[in-house]
């Protein structure tokens, strides 16, 4: 089995859940790298020959202005689209659709919709989360294998 290079995108640089995930993936010949969602991760992914980008907790809070929030999402989404067009697989583990700091709910739903459509697959931990995403996609039929249900890698 050939090694797979996976870039884990997350909100925080250090996260105990991510340490466990990376440890488990390394046993399966998956080389993992980490980057924050507000970095130039597409450049790194192309430079290192990344096969898969795995998103976690992409919603962010703490923006004082909607323009800053829009810029963050525009930057993130355009990098994902570029990578997808260049053949990099995009997976999103959807922990929650609404950020804990719910400042820009409508904008968050709009950008979550785009990320869900760009992703090759969505990973959910609960049926309720899957139902939320189907509701968000509202009329856009997902392929039967679009969702991956998991409890732990």
3D structure, described in words:
This protein has 153 residues and is an alpha/beta fold. Helix content is 42%, strand content 21%. The chain has five helices and six strands; from the N terminus they run βαβαβαβαβαβ. The protein has helices at 16-26, 41-48, 66-85, 105-118, 127-137; strands spanning 4-10, 30-36, 52-56, 89-94, 121-124, 147-149. Strands 2-1-3-4-5-6 form a six-stranded parallel beta sheet, sandwiched between helices. α2 (41-48) packs parallel to α3 (66-85) and α3 packs parallel to α4. The chain is globular and about 40 Å long. The model has no long low-confidence stretch (mean pLDDT 78).
Which characteristics define this entry?
153 residues; six-stranded parallel β-sheet; 21% strand; alpha/beta
Radius of gyration computed on alpha carbons: 15 Å
Class of secondary structure makeup: alpha/beta
Output the number of helix runs: 5
Shape: globular
* pLDDT averaged residue by residue: 78
Number of strands: 6
Q: Describe the main β-sheet briefly.
A: 6 strands, parallel
Strand order, sheet with most strands: 2-1-3-4-5-6
Q: Which percent bin holds the helix content?
A: 40-55%
Layout of helices and strands:
Elements: E1 4-10, H1 16-26, E2 30-36, H2 41-48, E3 52-56, H3 66-85, E4 89-94, H4 105-118, E5 121-124, H5 127-137, E6 147-149
Parallel strand pairs: 1-2, 1-3, 3-4, 4-5, 5-6
């Amino acid at each position: 089995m050939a090694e797979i290079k996976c870039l884990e995108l997350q909100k925080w640089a250090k996260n105990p859940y991510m340490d466990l995930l990376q440890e488990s993936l390394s046993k399966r010949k998956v080389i993992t790298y980490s980057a924050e969602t507000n970095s130039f991760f597409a450049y790194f992914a192309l430079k290192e020959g990344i096969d898969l980008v795995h998103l976690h907790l992409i919603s962010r809070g703490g923006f004082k202005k909607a323009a800053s929030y829009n810029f963050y999402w525009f930057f993130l989404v355009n990098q994902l689209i570029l990578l997808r067009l260049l053949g990099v697989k995009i997976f999103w583990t959807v922990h929650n659709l609404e950020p804990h700091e719910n400042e820009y709910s409508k904008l968050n739903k709009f950008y979550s919709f785009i990320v869900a459509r760009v992703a090759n697959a969505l990973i959910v931990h609960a049926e309720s989360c899957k139902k939320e995403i189907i509701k968000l996609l509202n009329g856009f039929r997902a392929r039967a294998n679009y969702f991956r249900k998991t409890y732990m890698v």
